Fold:
Amino acid sequence: MLNKYTLLFVLLSSSIFYACDNARVHDKKEWKQLFDSYQITDACIIIKDQTHEIVDYYNLNRCRKRFTPASTFKIMNSLIALETNTIPDESYTIQWDGVKRRPDWDTTMDMRKAFEVSNLIYYQQIAKKIGKEKLQLYLDTCQYGNKKTGNTVDSFWIDGTLTISADEQLGFIKKLYFNQLPFSERTQRIVRSMMLREQTNHSKLSFKTGWGYHGDKEVLWVVGYAEYIMSVKEHPNAMNKSNERNYPYFFAMNFDIPKGDTTKDWRSIRIALVKEFIDNYFKKLDK
Structure:
């Protein structure tokens, strides 16, 4: 069992904490109760409160274990497609081939819509257009998971060839948020805009989901970031008496369900879980 100091070294050595020497790291064992409430027995989550340099996690061993990224790879796939000018922008349209697969996929659509509905067929076509050489180049440059593409250019992120851990996902998302990935500011801005899913006057929630397979289990992902927006008073003599300050929280969560389990609405549950975790942080800022 890792002691506290070994744990801190492990986390600081990962991609999440490349500049966080003074990060406060907390093992949130009590988070198990929330997973238990949905009968989820094997799960992990990492949340980083960027403003206060706090890292909270549940189930360290699983947080460091690599799984297929499944549809969360659409973040990287989009970045590469835009950066290499494989497509000019997010409005690039691919015609539906007429094959019925899923109602929300069975139509001509652009990248923004394909990202929203997680259209595998659209992104397989994009991967083919990019080509294996360029895909491999950016996987290596970004140090994305195990960086493997295998022999099939349009399925390596869903067939178990490419794998990535929750802590690596969080590190990747954090760099995307701060424009620190090896892509142009424009490319990263477009992809962030596609990730935005919910917005209120006081918060934003941006994420990508994923659903893949490993062994006799299915693994469900949610990776992204939440922003709490707070008005702050400026200098009393300033013309503009207030502005906004964003408090970002980065997260990566995955959990297993039995293969073929349709007893619950898992697509909705994974989002509900993330919201419950993040809401607890927002409530503290409200006080």
Observations:
- The mean pLDDT is 90.
- The two ends are 37 Å apart (CA to CA).
- Residues 266-286 form the longest helix (21 residues).
